[in-house]
Design goal:
By secondary structure, the chain is mostly helical. It is built from 30 helices and 2 strands.
């Protein structure tokens, strides 16, 4: 149902009002809107100016001309303008790209990419992870590039460019008028999935770009221009990049239906392929759920609350769905309020009508919405990236209905839609360019949102680890406390709290948490090590020695424990005992530079010059540029 008005001023004002309310009065539920509350004052002023300017006619005309020019060039056949636009978009993406990695499992993923031993299964984006691992290996071996984030920067910007190009082509497929193409193009360009191009270190950009191509290829196939295997292969690729893309699999049947109806062999292949896909999909999903979400029940909270913050039949769930629609569609929500008129009715316009693709787009949208309804109580608003599946097909569905034939929106209404999209997306980009603001936003979302007040929620723990690694120890402490409240005496939560307390100089508190972690998990080696360190910092040398010897009684090959014990004994003047511990350290871990260095110091202290010289040489062989080690060796004199 449409509500045509000459200019959608009232809906636009309501749209802006929601952003203001969400930003300054509501809790962090509508977090696609409440980004504005975390902007710097200068950026907030810019946002207010843009929101107000959209009500000015000349600004709306400028927006339509600018967006229309970009859209037309991307839809054209001349490659030079397309290349220039892509180059400008690359610069734009990289310039505005956030310097932080706090949304999603960003730093955790970049660490996994750098670790050749890490498992690739256990993540729904197994294909994407393999691609990023291969890119990392190639870049580090050929060019010496370090750090695990640059492969994600490369893929997210590339995916963003692909989606920008495909958005223009999709708009051209479904519309005939210039303004209709422009509005549909900008609606797709402001869709939540494309925003990964501005800096999120995550799996999803490649999957979202592949799904864009799936939509494009399916529409071309429905028009008879492409064979049906192209969207089929594309959908399989998207599913390998992230398992959530499987949700759209049944929509391909509409694309394949004409061919299947004509061929018995095609029907047999279709049935066999569907069975195979169903088996593989069920196996992968069950393994994934069992490992991360405590079994299949995690994804089926229909009427009971279970391990979730709310059941599916609840007000909370309804609010969440509304939040996702607002978050992912953004300014495209105002499309139904546009005044769309028939520009030049003709017999030809009817034949060009895109109504034939409407069932495909409707089914794709419906499937993705079902996925959203079923999965969201488990994953929550931090994973809007997964929920964005429905965004592109829904925008295309609305566009195919509004702009069928030669129906065109007016310039004023088109400019207001484009302005609304800018108003919605700008805070997303700007707030993540400021690390401190992004941390505040993440903290408010995870701590305040009721979704995370349940034992199955991973965000408080994983986001706490991410913030702690980035040096935001106070914020991490709040997240660790939230995780501990939700999950009780979980040893990892206690370990995180203890380690975080030690980093903030609260050693007595750290000792208490780490001892509780060991009580809950008596073989927790890292907890023993961090406990010993905290006890040393607190001046409890006797307790630290006792802790380390307890660890070595259950893990005699723990090199770090031997090193810590040797250092502790050496500091007490017990050089003979220290040497024994340090020798064990370097025997177990010959690459332990500090172990060799401290062993050399202890040996020199006892007059074992020959042995000390050997130890320092071993350390120097591992770090040839270390001047301190060379100074120790020189002080021993000539051989």
């Amino acid at each position: 149902m449409r509500f045509p008005v000459p200019i959608p001023v009232v809906p636009y004002l309501l749209f802006v009002s929601v952003h203001i309310l969400a930003s300054f009065t509501l809790p962090g539920r509508i977090w696609g809107a409440h980004h504005a509350g975390f902007l710097k004052p200068s950026f907030l002023a810019l946002w207010i100016i843009l929101a107000a300017a959209t009500l000015i006619p000349w600004w709306r005309r400028f927006l339509v001309r600018m967006a229309g020019g970009i859209s037309s060039l991307l839809q054209g056949s001349r490659w030079i303008p397309i290349v220039l636009i892509m180059a400008a978009a690359t610069f734009f993406f990289l310039t505005l790209r956030t310097n932080n990695s706090f949304l999603g499992d960003s730093l955790l993923l970049s660490t996994v990419v750098m670790n050749p031993e890490s498992a690739t299964f256990g993540t729904a984006g197994v294909g994407s992870l393999w691609i990023h691992k291969i890119l990392y290996r190639a870049g580090s071996s050929l060019f010496g590039w370090e750090g695990g984030t640059w492969p994600f920067i490369l893929t997210s910007v590339s995916a963003g460019l692909a989606m920008l190009f495909l958005a223009a082509r999709l708009a051209a497929l479904l519309t005939t008028g210039a303004r209709a193409r422009t509005v549909l193009f900008v609606s797709l360009a402001g869709w939540a999935g494309l925003l990964f191009s501005f800096g999120y270190v995550e799996h999803y950009p490649l999957m979202q770009a592949t799904l864009f191509f799936y939509l494009y290829g399916s529409i071309r196939s429905l028009r008879g221009a492409w064979p049906i295997w192209i969207p089929a292969v594309t959908l399989v690729a998207a599913s390998l990049l992230h398992l959530s893309a499987v949700a759209l699999a049944p929509s391909w049947l509409i694309v394949a239906a004409p061919s299947i109806s004509r061929s018995r062999a095609a029907r047999g292949a279709m049935i066999g392929g569907a069975i195979l896909v169903a088996i593989l999909g069920a196996w992968a999903l069950l393994n994934y759920m069992e490992e991360f979400y405590r079994g299949a029940d995690a994804f089926v909270p229909f009427l009971h609350q279970g391990s979730h913050s709310y059941p599916m039949v609840s007000v909370h769930h309804l609010l969440f769905i509304g939040n996702e629609l607002f978050l992912i569609l953004g300014g495209a929500l105002l499309l139904p309020f546009m005044d769309v008129r028939q520009e030049s009715p003709s017999a030809e316009s009817a034949s060009d009508s895109p109504r034939s693709v409407t069932p495909f787009l409707a089914v794709s949208t419906g499937l993705a919405l079902i996925y959203l309804i079923l999965v969201d109580p488990m994953l929550g608003p931090r994973d809007w990236d997964l929920m964005a599946l429905f965004g592109a097909p829904m925008i295309l569905l609305i566009g195919s209905y509004l702009f069928r034939g030669t129906r065109e929106p007016g310039t004023a209404a088109s400019g207001m839609i484009i302005g609304a999209i800018l108003v919605h997306t700008l805070p997303w980009i700007l707030v993540n360019a400021d690390q401190d603001r992004s941390v505040e936003m993440t903290l408010a979302m995870v701590v305040d949102d009721p979704h995370y007040a349940n034992p199955a929620a991973r965000a408080p723990k994983s986001m706490g680890v991410i913030l702690s690694r980035a040096g935001y120890h106070e914020a991490a402490a709040e997240l660790f406390r939230t995780a501990a409240e939700n999950q009780g005496d979980d040893p990892q939560n206690l370990f995180n709290l203890g380690t975080n307390s030690a980093r903030r100089g609260k050693y007595d508190q750290a000792i208490s948490y780490l001892r509780r972690a060991i009580e809950a998990e008596p073989r927790y080696e890292d907890a023993y090590l961090n406990l010993a360190t905290a006890e040393l910092k607190a001046g409890n040398l006797v307790d630290a020695e006792k802790t380390l010897r307890s660890l070595l009684s259950i893990a005699p090959d723990q090199a770090k424990a031997h090193y810590q014990l040797g250092t502790l004994l050496g500091g007490q003047g017990r050089a003979d005992e220290a040497i024994n511990s340090l020798r064990e350290c370097v025997r177990i871990a010959p690459e332990h530079v500090e172990g060799w260095a401290n062993l050399g110091v202890m040996q020199a202290r006892l007059g074992q010059t020959k042995e000390a010289r050997v130890s320092f040489k071993e350390a120097l062989s591992l770090e040839p540029e270390n001047e301190n080690l060379r100074g120790y060796l020189d002080r021993l004199g000539p051989e």
